[in-house]
Specification:
15 helices, globular
Length: 416
């Protein structure tokens, strides 16, 4: 998820009345928020499902909670957020089919409808997301977008296979490829002006292709495929650690330091996942038990959720046209997340300690809920202050929107 979200409303001003009406509709905060609501509900439902898997009391709402937990989180929530951000960047009404399908698909999984309906909606949502990336690729022809397309292909493959495979466990490598390549591609976009090596972009493109191939290989030949998958994942972690600007901005203060801390912590968890995958592939035919718990939560909680926490103060204002100011209190849920995940993986999963895993899992959930609550509260208070400070009509200046298509404009966006 890129903090540099392109707002394409300026592009449509000369595209005719229909395009202008669509642009005005898409620029409304309420309309964009409407697409985010199903993703938020999928997050809450997925966290409720986590309580079921932990064997703890939960809210008795929804069906198939335990079986749907992973897909709710990966596609119902994370996929919806990614698709919404990319749809805003595209600036076309048809692009918003992707977040709509993914969000509704996640909710359909736990509804009274047959589960195949939810599975089908998620598959269609991933196809629609690929359809969002293609015009972005034609527009920019950038390696970063190409890598994100590879991630979308992994999402399509995973959801298509889930239509026939009842268990999500064999699909974990493909699900990991989906989120890792999406995030790696957008980190490349942000880091490009700081990269001076001519081999950096081709190297990441090659590693991304290998990661997609290894995700398929881990499904077909689990033992050797998992070793290959872990090795390539580790190589991508090294690339991110070397070329990402986070290793420089960690020495700054305020929001840049907060973002860098979350990013580097996420890369650390991705390295842990790489070690687990390689070790599990050497020792067994498949990842099960504590190793499965450690791998999935290192990728989808430690890495992915840390990326969301890092970019939320910049992404949400751009997507929802709603301020979300950074405050140091945002460090609290991030710290809780990583501390509880350390307890879960390095203590509970290593020792196969059920009660400790339950305790750590509850703190994991609390950290995510706390972050969401703080983000909503900060956004609401900022909006109230902005409303009180709004100048009287007639005293405002027009908002000048930069053109988003030229290389200079894209370079300026990446420096934010």
């Amino acid at each position: 998820m890129s903090p540099a979200v392109a707002d394409n409303s300026a592009r449509t001003t000369h595209a005719g009345p229909a395009a202008s009406r669509s642009a005005r509709l898409l620029n409304r905060t309420g309309v964009r928020l409407l697409f985010l609501v199903p993703g938020g509900l999928a997050l809450l439902t997925g966290l409720n499902a986590a309580l079921v898997l932990l064997g703890l009391p939960h809210v008795p709402v929804g069906r198939n909670l335990a079986a749907s937990h992973g897909m709710l989180m990966v596609f119902g929530f994370i996929g919806t957020v990614i698709a919404l951000e990319r749809s805003v960047a595209l600036g076309r009404l048809a692009g918003f089919a992707a977040p709509a399908l993914l969000g509704l698909g996640g909710l359909a999984l736990v509804s009274p409808l047959p589960q195949q309906v939810g599975k089908g909606l998620l598959f269609c949502g991933c196809v629609a997301l690929a359809g969002v990336y293609l015009p972005l690729w034609k527009r920019q022809r950038e390696v970063a977008v190409l890598i994100q397309i590879l991630g979308a292909v992994a999402g399509i493959a995973a959801t298509m296979l889930w239509l026939r495979i009842p268990d999500t466990a064999p699909l974990i490598p493909l699900l990991a490829v989906f989120v890792v390549l999406t995030i790696a591609g957008e980190r490349l976009e942000l880091a490009r002006i700081h990269i001076h090596s001519p081999v950096a972009e081709p190297l990441l493109t090659g590693l991304s292709t290998l990661l997609l191939a290894s995700g398929v290989g881990a499904l077909l030949w689990p033992r050797h495929g998992l070793v290959f998958f872990g090795a390539v994942l580790g190589a991508i972690v090294v690339w991110l650690a070397v070329y990402d600007v986070a290793r420089h901005t960690i020495r700054s203060t305020g929001l840049p330091r907060y973002i860098a801390g979350c990013l580097l912590a996420g890369y650390g968890w991705l390295a842990v996942a790489a070690v687990i995958s390689t070790t599990a592939g050497i020792q067994a035919e498949a990842i099960t038990g504590s190793a499965y718990d450690a791998l999935t939560h290192a990728v989808f909680l430690g890495f992915t959720m840390s990326m969301i926490m890092a970019h939320a103060p910049v992404i949400l204002p751009a997507v929802l046209r709603h301020p979300l100011p950074y405050r140091p209190i945002l460090v609290l849920p991030a710290t809780l997340l990583h501390a509880s995940l350390c307890l879960r993986i390095f203590v509970a999963d290593v020792l196969d300690d059920g009660p400790t895993r339950q305790f750590a899992g509850v703190v994991n959930i609390a950290a995510v809920v706390l972050f969401a609550a703080l983000a909503a509260g900060l956004a609401a208070s900022a909006r109230q202050r902005a409303g009180r400070a709004a100048p009287a009509p007639g005293n405002t200046l027009p908002i000048l929107r930069p053109q988003t298509q030229g290389p200079a404009a894209r370079k300026d966006r990446r420096t934010r």
